[in-house]
Write a structure and sequence with these properties.
about 300 residues
């Protein structure tokens, strides 16, 4: 089965989960006030378990070298995305500019990207994706947050970063790799099974958010422009760049898949927190999320 076939099958499955989430929202099974509990379950439990499971394997020196390479790729991607945002959104009003630049810089790689990588590339893909996201998570709370805040509360940012479970578990996983033992079999199975919940749970949460959205309000030309840059322009730049540089196939494929994800789900939350145009941020997330269900499989035709 080709990468396209696997991605198409995965996205079809994710689409079913999204529709399930929409139905849950429309039927008031998953209400807005209850969705935060599911988000916490995803971010604090299931996603960290999926990441930890990817480290609970025998790792050789070649894999560690590749992990270092994909972290370099990650930094390059963010730098190019930063330049792209400066070029595309230089004439936007201040309230929207922060949202557009942040959405160009950071995708929903953790919530949506990791489950897709797990389904298409397996445990090896999750392992590399975890290292790819290391610099990204640091930059979200430094470079990313600086787009929204006027004052520079460095201590607060660092503390927020250090308390992020998905980041903490990466360091636990790295330590686990160098230990002379692995997780006990019962615990290992439990971690894997809990981690396997991430894909369905994340897509149902996204579906529930879409179910609450007014799709007519999502018809914002700037949201469509952001979606085009987020889902087409940047992934194609990275795809041709890293292929031309002769980067190992699985590394650039994982990187491109993660960069081809929709706008980061926390864009709306951060925009509202710092008094920017959070309604516009929500529209960017909705439009790019719906479009990504179709754009990601098409992109893998070039893999």
């Amino acid at each position: 089965m080709t990468v396209f076939d696997r991605m198409l099958s995965t996205q079809a499955l994710m689409f079913v989960y999204v529709v399930t989430g929409i139905i849950m929202a429309k039927c008031n099974i998953l209400r807005h006030e209850g969705r935060s509990s599911f988000i916490n379950l995803l971010l604090d439990i299931t996603l960290p378990c999926m990441i930890l499971n990817s480290f609970n394997v025998e790792i050789g020196i070649d894999e560690l070298i590749s992990a270092g390479e994909i972290m370099i790729i990650s930094v390059v991607c963010v730098f190019i995305a930063w330049l792209t945002g400066k070029v595309f959104w230089r004439n936007q009003p201040h309230e929207r500019k922060a949202v557009l630049e942040f959405s160009t810089l950071f995708s929903n790689a953790g919530n949506a990207g990791m489950p897709i990588v797990a389904s298409v590339f397996g445990t090896e893909g999750v392992f590399y994706a975890s290292f790819y996201l290391l610099p990204v998570r640091i930059l979200i709370w430094t470079l990313g947050l600086s787009l929204f805040v006027d004052e520079r509360d460095t201590k607060k940012r660092i503390m927020t970063l250090l308390k992020t479970p998905s980041l903490v578990v990466v360091f636990i996983g790295i330590a686990l790799m160098f230990m002379p033992f692995k997780l006990p079999s019962v615990l290992s199975v439990a971690v894997k099974n809990i981690g396997d919940m991430t894909g369905p749970l994340s897509m149902m949460i996204i579906g529930a958010a879409l179910g609450e959205s007014n799709l007519r309000e999502a018809l914002d030309i700037d949201a469509f422009k952001l979606t085009f840059v987020r889902l087409a322009v940047q992934p194609l730049i990275f795809l041709f760049l890293f292929r031309a540089l002769g980067v190992q196939a699985i590394l650039w494929q994982v990187a491109v898949t993660l960069t081809a994800m929709p706008a980061a789900a926390n864009t709306e939350i951060i925009a509202e927190m710092y008094g920017k145009d959070y309604a516009f941020a929500a529209r960017c997330v909705v439009v790019s999320t719906v479009a990504s269900l179709f754009s990601v499989p098409l992109l893998t035709l070039l893999f």
